[in-house]
Write a structure and sequence with these properties.
- By secondary structure, the chain is an all-alpha fold.
- The protein has helices at 2-16, 20-31, 36-45.
- It has one domain.
- It contains three helices and no strands.
- Helix 1 runs antiparallel to helix 2.
- The protein is globular and about 25 Å long.
């Protein structure tokens, strides 16, 4: 499931040119139930 979500995030970023943190943090927080501070730190790490 995580790989599928990651694939769609990458596809969205490639197609739109939007920065990764803009879509990654909400997806991690809403769909994978990652706490918001941890999701933000993971987005900044990569």
């Amino acid at each position: 499931m995580r790989y599928l979500i990651g694939f769609f995030i990458a596809l969205y970023i490639i197609l739109t040119g939007v920065g990764a943190g803009t879509i990654t943090v909400p997806v991690l927080a809403l769909f994978l139930c990652v706490p918001a501070p941890e999701a933000k730190s993971q987005s900044l790490k990569h």
